[in-house]
Amino acid sequence: MGNLCGKESSDSFAGPGRQLGSSSPPVSGGRAALPNPKPKITGPGRTLSEGARPTGASGGTGDDARRQAAQAAEERAQKAKQVKGKLGTQLAQQRQQTRTDTLGSMSAEEMRRRDQDENAAARDWN
pLDDT, tens digit, for every residue of 50-91? Predict the structure, then answer.
């Protein structure tokens, strides 16, 4: 079977064939090459931030890291609340709407649409 929309490929069975009872052709090499081993890391680790200190016996850096993470999360939340352009103001207005406000506005739009349809039908009738 071939592809209905594609071109015929003449190289599908271009290689020499084998008989059903014969074994598969021998594979050269015998084994796959092993991957390179990972380099061993020696020495102390690197610090990833400026204010981080290496952990000591006091264990006080866990609270400091938690405080820094909370502060960073608060900053991200404040940045997300900032209004950016016309679409940002529209999004902020939509976020401030309650469920009843949203349903009320959708209902009003549907009523206007129905009135317009009725008016169009009355114009077409006359």
Answer: 655 555 444 456 789 999 999 999 999 888 777 788 988 888
Report yes or no: 59 and 65 within 8 Å, Cβ to Cβ. Answer: no
- What angle is formed at CA 104 by the lines to CA 99 and CA 106, rounded to 5 degrees? 95
Q: Three-state SS for 27?
A: coil
CA–CA gap between residue 2 and residue 28 (Å, rounded): 32
Cβ-Cβ contacts under 8 Å for 54 (sequence gap 6 or more): 44, 47
* Distant-in-sequence, close-in-space partners of 105: CB < 8 Å, separation ≥ 6: 97
Under 8 Å between Cβ of 61 and 55? yes
The CA distance from 104 to 63, in Å, is 48
**Among 85, 108, 80, which Cα is nearest to 95's?**
80
- Helix, coil or strand: residue 79: helix
Task: Tell me the two tokens of residue 126.
Answer: 């006359």
Residue with tokens 């003449």: 10
